Amino acid sequence: MPKKPSSQPLVSTEEAAMRRRVEQSAAARALATGGVELPEVNPPSLEGLEVTVPQAPDPSRDALLARFHELRREQAQRRQRAPGEPAALGDEVAVDILGFAHGQPIPSSARLGMRLELAPRPALPGLFEGMVGLRVGESTRLQLTLPPDYPVEGLRGAKAEFLVMLHEAWALTLLPEDNTEFLTRLGRGMTLEAVMDSIAVELEEQLTDALWLEAEQRVLDALAERTQVELPGSLIDEEIRRSWGRSEGRALISMNTPPEHQESSLQAWLSDDFQRQDAERRLRVSLGLRALIESEQLHVTDADLHELLDRVAGELGLSRNDVEAALREDRGMTRTVAETALHLKAVEYVMERAQVHFEGAGEGRAQLGKA
After folding, report:
1. Where do Polar residues bias regions lie (predicted)?
2. Residue range 202-229, pLDDT digits in tens
3. Which residue among 95, 104, 310, 368 sits deepest, i.e. has the most Cβ atoms within 10 Å of its Cβ?
4. Band of the pLDDT at 95, cuts 50, 70, 90?
């Protein structure tokens, strides 16, 4: 005999309401769009592809001190604050943040679970100071005036309101700068002078990596210019929708913002000149690389996949076996990894054929370590 259906709902009223909100949200629509037909393009020529990377300034004293401050906090004694305990200046906190101005969400202001030091920041004066005293597990609304140099020109000097949810907080007790235990933990020498010398070397190495990343971006910019294709506005819109849906849209859903605020945020992205230019660049680079992959018959080797898996595992703090096990359980993620590896292979192919010049190369600075 068939089993009688239960009279109890499969999900709670609250969960059903949440599902409806998600299904009706702008972010869900942005991510649920069907396949998009991409235009066919001829492979861009790599002949005479040449870029120059401007010389970067040496690490400043402020940068050295900022890194030293980070190291002191990393070695500090930590105590997690209990639910209901107020946060204090200098704490490390995990917060959700969303800003509003003129009654609408501030573009790119949504942050979920952001970890940071509770300390003043000139970019948003009053915001982080206002979190002092907020209790773990509680939320608040903070009013402030956006500074005259705020990145969005139309919001400079505007009155803004930020919604803040404090999830976790940790009280830090920093060891004295010249404390033997602190210096031993750092492992960078037993004097402050030795530590600062070590930090200077570290920052120079980071500068080298940053310059090569800048070189890659400039080469791909040149590739985008050489990719001859007419991109319809609808395709650029679709690229922006997907980018928004993966980032700010998801954050807005998680914060239970009303659908009209999600729609307003999406429309702000669609009408923003920078977002449109960036989306067009990404599309041109992607189409150009795809054409090169097909014309040059580029393919991914086992060594390419292993290198990528090792990189991912290192960034996640996992072993390669852990990553491979996770991929076996998620076929979609496996495809993503393979596509990423092929994309990196194509970028490497282009970089090997480009001429990159670094200003100041004759001075033998650390930025030339890979030249």
Report:
1. 1-11
2. 999 999 999 999 999 999 999 999 999 9
3. 95
4. very high
